[in-house]
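Q: Sequence in, structure out?
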Amino acid sequence: MVATVPVMAKPIPMMPEGLELVRSTPLLDQETVPAGLLKAHRITRGVWGKLVVHTGELIFRFEDELLHRHHISAGEHFDIPPSRPHHLIVDDPVTFQVEFHRPPE
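A: Exactly. Output:
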């Protein structure tokens, strides 16, 4: 019999302190979410994202951890590190924004 080893998720990323907000998307929902957010993409090197859910819930997945789903609900946020491929799953009504932060110049 072959033993199975559980796959451990990587630690949840946390945005470093001291970054400044440089821009944010408009308020998006299940109808207006750009198709690019639903497939693998990444944030520019040196820039952190902050996914902020206002109403409803969505699922965030890193491409290198497809077995793990991060459910982000209204009032919650999820920090997205630079250059790490990820995508969203939007199956239900939701409103959200993505903020972009970087070190001060």
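Confidence is low (pLDDT under 50) at residues 1-5.
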